[in-house]
Here is the input.
Amino acid sequence: MADPISDMFIRIKNAQNAGHDTVQFPYSRMKHEIARALERTGFVGHAERKGKRVKKFLEVALIGGKEKPGLRGIKLISTPGRRVYISYKDMRAASHGGAVLLTTSKGILSGNEARRDKVGGQLLAEVW
Here is the structure.
């Protein structure tokens, strides 16, 4: 797998479109922090680490359902071949009425949290 973060986003989006209640994917701290940021912004339910040692996985509860999904779309901004960085001064509101996720020195934050804390960083994705 070339990009585990994009795989995580695609699994969440596909599970939401299929009408599933939860989605599971291999665990990493980065993915857990991204899921917690999505939880804080209200796009997904709780994110919980399950399993032991090598067989750890992350289970994320989806909200809404197929008729009214909590997460309708995801657009990846940074990829392994092209990293995009932004200052907090240059951050604008996300299109589609969604949120922007970025990785900063204070962890994974949404665009509003980064503006409030006055930190910039690498843009990960835009969710709506």
Notes: Strands lie at 22-26, 44-50, 57-62, 74-76, 85-86, 99-104, 107-110, 121-127.
